[in-house]
Structures are given as structure tokens and as C-alpha cells.
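Each record in this resource describes a single protein on a pair of labelled lines. An example record follows, reproduced without changes.
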Amino acid sequence: MIYIFFKQIFLMRKSQNIDISYTYLSQRAKEQYDLSRRRNYFPDLKLSRNSYEDYTLDYRRDDEFGCFYQRENATILMLVRNSELEGALDSMRSLEDRFNKRYHYDWTFLNDVPFDQEFIEATTAMASGKAQYALIPPEDWDRPQWINETLFEARLHEMETDGVLYGGSKSYRNMCRFNSGFFFRQSILDNYDYYFRVEPNVEYYCDFPYDPFRVMRLKGKKYGFVISLYEYEETIPTLWDTVEGYLETNEGRILNKEDSAYAFLTDTDLVGKYYPIVDSNSNYNLCHFWSNFEIGDLNFFRSDEYKTFFETLDSKGGFYYERWGDAPVHSIGVSLLLRPDEIIHFDELGYFHSPFGTCPASHGVRLDQRCRCKSDAESVIDIEPHSCLMRWWKNGSGKYFLKEVQSQNSENVL
């Protein structure tokens, strides 16, 4: 009995020591990251933060109580159906919690049919800023009259039979054409300079460490993305032929290939351990920015250069006779018409759109930004063979691993 008694005493003390040890380790972790969690993180050096900007922007995230956050001339933009209300609310809740609850940017909703009262009430309640709604004019959405209906129906049936993704969908083609050449023409956007595209059923894994709109303006960026991957070639078999015709016709009117991000679209050499995972039948390597997350300068898309680019493509009918997506169209357009340093990869923003996601690689960043993701998760595509991100590092604006010490005169950005 005495043996059992002392054994119990020993086990109790051992358990207490373990509890004390865990408490100590937890307290150390808390102290180490406490300033970050209280929004006072302001490092001079950014180690392995995986940003290939020398710096994104200096910022100090102070206690939010009573804090005023300056807004840019921008809106959050969603093209959505009434039937997608639940997915829209999920996306809104995620982005509001991670970013917009501090800034209260306007939400702009577009639809090709009128929004119903349930949709308007629910999304207005979810938005921290103003919510506004617009009906897309039929001439911006519907299939143009000059499309050969017999050929269109035949190609639709052919692509559906071949199992091409959305190959048999008419509405999907309308959406891709609208997003490629008409979204920025909507009058409800006329007074804005920037947009942040959001789709239903997406998730933002991390707190935003800065206002991306402000980054865009202060750093002269015109297009921002988080994921880059390869397009399905069966959806765009003649797209690059049309692009090459555009380049020949507009030689001397747009950037030289050497000054643009043309190499990002055409490089097929070994990058790291990987060659392109698909063999393209053209000089286009099929890399594109995944446009379900994009932050852009509306004035770029309103420019004569981009509109000429789009109208050249649109005149060939490929949005309907094939299934050209807005992601490769946007990507090719910005890569040909912008300098690489005008395009930014927001590598500190965690994001998921089924089936792919992106998550900051730095453990410290994930703690600081309260991320709910793992950088080695199966869905995280960043440095996988089917990602084009490494090709952007090589041919775009590069990649840096250290944050330079900023001067004391740097503008403080909230």
C-alpha cells in the first residue's frame, strides 16, 4: 500500500512538471508573437517571407480600436447569380473578416438578370461597406449576332462529346467573354480606379497585412495575382495564332517583347526541377494567372491598347467556337502590354478556390497573419509541377527573400 501511495505521489508530481513545462513553452510562444497578434509587428528585416518584392510596403498594424484606415478609389467586384447566394456570403464573410472589416470598401455585384430581394438583403447585411447592384446590358452579355449559330452548335456538341471542361456550356462562354472585354465598361464602375475580383465559394486563409489597393497605387502596379497555372489547351486551340496575328499587326505600337512579360508566356526551359507538364502545340506555354483572384487597375483595361487587344481576339469568335477563358486572355493581355514590374504576385495572401490554394511558406508569417492553412497541403499549388509561379519568378519581376531596411521617411501604410 505504501508503494502504491508513493507511486501515485510520483505520477502526480510528474504530471504537474509536464503541465508546468507546457505552460512555460506556451508562454514563450505567446511572448514571442504577442506583438504580432496585437498588430504591432514592424520588422526591419523580413526573413524567408517569400516576397520577391524587396518590400511590399512598410506598415504598422496598431490596435484597431478607434483606428481610421484610409481607402483607395476601389471596389470589391463579384459577378454572381441569385442561386449562388450562400457561396457569395461565404466569400464575403471570409474577405470581410480577413481584410475589409477595417476598410469598408464598396461591394459591387453584377448579374445578367435582376438580383432578387433575398440576395440584396443578405449581401447588404454582410458587407461592411456600401453594397451596390447592377444589371449587365444584354449587348455586353449575350452571344453577338454575327456568330454563326450552326457552327457554334456543332462546336458546342463536339467539345461536350470530347469532355472539354464546360465545353457544352453556353452561359460559361458568355461569362468568359464578359470578363475578358466588358466588365470594366459597366457604368457602375466608371468612378473607380481599382477592382478586387471575388467569386462565390472562395476562402481567404490569412489576415491581409496591408491594403492591396494601396500597394497597387503607391508601387505603380496594374495587375495582381496569387496563383498561376497551366491552361487546358483543348479550350484554346487557336488562341495563340490570333495573338501572333495581333502582335504582327501592332508591332511598334505596344511594348517590345524584351520590355514586356512575353517570355513568361513562351518559356519552356527547365525551371528548378520542372519542364512544363503539358506539351503545347504552339509557342504559348499555356501559363496564365488564375483570374478568380485578381486585383487590377481599371484604367489599364479601359485603355485603347487593351480594348484593341480584346477586340482583335473577339472578332475571331473563339469565345464561342472554342471556349476561350478570361484567365488566359487577361494573362496574355497584361503580359504583352505591361512591364513585368507593373505586375505583382501577392505572395503573403492566403487563398483557396477549389481545387487549388496558396499559403505563405513562412511559419512566422502564418502566425503573424493568423493563417488557417498549411504551406505543404495537397491543395497548395505554389511550387508544384502544375504551377507556373516559378516561371514567373524567372521571367517576371523576380523573387527576393529578404526585406530591405526602409528609410525613416517611408510612408506609413495601414
Q: What stands out?
A: The chain has a mean pLDDT of 87. The CA atoms of residues 90 and 147 lie 37 Å apart. The radius of gyration is 24 Å.
